[in-house]
Amino acid sequence: MAEAGVVAVAGTVTVYRIAVAGVAPADRAPDGWAYGLGLAMALALLARRRWPAATLATVGALFLTYHMSRYPGGAPAAPLWVAMYSVAVAPRRRSGLAVAAVFLLLDLHGRMMVEDVGPLDATLDSSTVVFGAALLLGEAVRSRRIRLTLSAAERDRAAEQRVIEERIRIARELHDVTAHTLAVVGVQAGVAAEVLEDDPDQARAALDVVRQASREAMVELRAAVGALRDGRREPAPGDHRPAGLDGTLGDLRDPAGEPSPAPPAPALDRLPELTAATGAVLLHDGEPRPMPRAVEATAYRIVQEAVANAVRHADAHRIEVRLGYRPDGLTLTIQDDGRGAGGPPGNGLRGMAERATGLGGWLRAGPAEGGGFQVRGWLPG
């Protein structure tokens, strides 16, 4: 439809210009053949998008034929302007620009012969400038289209990268939550089994810890799954509301059917609870002080994963967590006396390193001196 409109406008303008063109004494008055050439030039524009170079060659040949027939000069130029523009704006235009260059040279040579002037004479400027303007307009439109395409591609890449980063973040959360919960359940279930007959109260307390850990894990897992499915992010550290578009997760309930309260946000003040539940020892170097929320949340997740690894894989008797409050940030050391690493780094170690480097810090993990395994890191703050 758009192409038909271009042809109609170009044909109308061409017919009008031929009709009103002044006829010099040496010119041939326009007749049916002249109007036929002009309309043929306009009709050739129907192929300008698919074959811009061939279209320009056809229109140019008809234009030169019109002038060789001694009809009034310049009258049917409108289709030629459109063809020039189409060549310049085309994605693949090498052959089209070559055709345009040949046409401009032939047109310039023909008018030099007719006017009997040199190539730099001012009488040749008007036609050449208009043809050049059509080419420049096409170039400008093409450049803008390229910029818009590149910008759209960049936005798509950025959006895809955000999706990938969000999925990695959710994968880390799922891994950390499940690993920690299994570690707590394993330790406390073992305690309950050992003291069930001798100290039922202690066994009951251990099972209460298991139940609480399960409830918290359920809420956090549902939050992570909801974010993965519906695009809902978890709340920022310090926001105790469950994640969701409106700050809710819907009707979250524990296995007993009771509503599950949202667990506190990961923070350093939760480490005593974590270490107590897993049997680890928490130590401090320096004067404890509040840290940025992102640092506290990251530190908590790193300690959570490192302790869970030690409980599940190291067969350790002692797990030591040491926090060092330094002027430039927070140092973390998690060391156990277990059997050390038994293979290549897994998702947990990769996740810890990604968390640390994401804040501009660092993390290293490997065998400790004297046996066992050690995780060391630093977070700015």
Automatic annotation (TrEMBL):
Residues 229-268 are annotated as: Disordered. Gene3D superfamilies: 1.20.5.1930, Histidine kinase-like ATPase, C-terminal domain (3.30.565.10). Residues 229-243 have a biased composition (Basic and acidic residues). GO terms for molecular function: ATP binding; phosphorelay sensor kinase activity; protein dimerization activity. InterPro entries: HATPase_C_sf, HATPase_dom, Sensor_HK_TwoCompSys, Sig_transdc_His_kin_sub3_dim/P. Residues 166-230 form the Signal transduction histidine kinase subgroup 3 dimerisation and phosphoacceptor domain. Residues 296-341 form the Histidine kinase/HSP90-like ATPase domain. Pfam families: HATPase_c (PF02518), HisKA_3 (PF07730). CDD domains: HATPase_UhpB-NarQ-NarX-like. It is an enzyme of class 2 (transferase). Coiled coil: none annotated. One of its GO terms (cellular component) is membrane. The keyword Cytoplasm does not apply. It catalyses: ATP + protein L-histidine = ADP + protein N-phospho-L-histidine. Keywords: ATP-binding, Kinase, Nucleotide-binding, Phosphoprotein, Transferase, Two-component regulatory system. Its EC number is 2.7.13.3. PANTHER family: NITRATE/NITRITE SENSOR PROTEIN NARX-RELATED, NITRATE_NITRITE SENSOR PROTEIN NARQ. This is histidine kinase. It comes from Micromonospora avicenniae. The lineage of its organism: Bacteria, Bacillati, Actinomycetota, Actinomycetes, Micromonosporales.
